[in-house]
Write a structure and sequence with these properties.
Largest sheet: 5 strands, antiparallel
Strand content: 15-25%
Radius of gyration: 16 Å
Number of strands: 5
Order of helices and strands: HEHEEHHEEH
Structural class: alpha+beta
Shape: globular
Distance between the termini: 57 Å
Strand order of the largest sheet: 2-3-1-4-5
């Protein structure tokens, strides 16, 4: 009985500390593109954590669901220990990605790191060419949300194609 209560508390904490990437689309996204997206977002997150003095912090998949596809990613440290106290780090990463999206879309001046450009490009790739798509990135339990709608996806795609490699 005690173990069940403990697991319930862990589940509640997991939900609060998860970085959620949700695709609202009519067609299933490509598994290869989703795999690449998870890799590129993780590399961008690791770079972001490193710049804040947190070496060895990465993301791990907590849950994946299909339909309107979503992935919940949690911050983990060395030996894959779950970092429950890194909700602020995840929320800061969402803000960071919002800035990168705006730079890549040409809405604000600036230059994004290659690792961050690849992450944003990979987030849009699974639904490239589809219509009526929305992508949201947020930390569960937080109001800090990045919404990438069809217009923003189209704008980022054209900016990325026009930009020199």
């Amino acid at each position: 009985m005690h173990e069940a209560k403990t697991m319930e508390k862990v589940r509640e904490r997991d939900d609060e500390a998860a970085l959620r990437i949700r695709y609202e689309t009519h067609e299933p996204p490509s598994a290869l593109a989703i795999g690449q997206m998870l890799q590129d977002v993780t590399k961008s997150f690791e770079d972001y954590a490193n710049t804040r003095g947190l070496q060895g912090v990465t993301l791990a998949v907590q849950r994946l669901e299909a339909g309107s596809f979503f992935a919940d990613l949690i911050a983990v440290g060395q030996a894959l220990q779950v970092l429950y106290d890194h909700k602020e780090l995840l929320a800061g990463f969402v803000t960071h990605i919002q800035g990168v999206v705006q730079i890549v879309a040409g809405l604000v001046p600036g230059r994004a790191k290659d690792v961050d450009r690849r992450a944003v490009q990979a987030v849009a790739a699974p639904v490239a060419g589809q219509r009526n798509v929305n992508i949201t990135i947020n930390v569960e339990g937080s109001h800090n949300t990045v919404t990438i709608d069809q217009g923003l996806i189209d704008r980022m795609t054209s900016q990325l194609q026009a930009a020199p490699a």
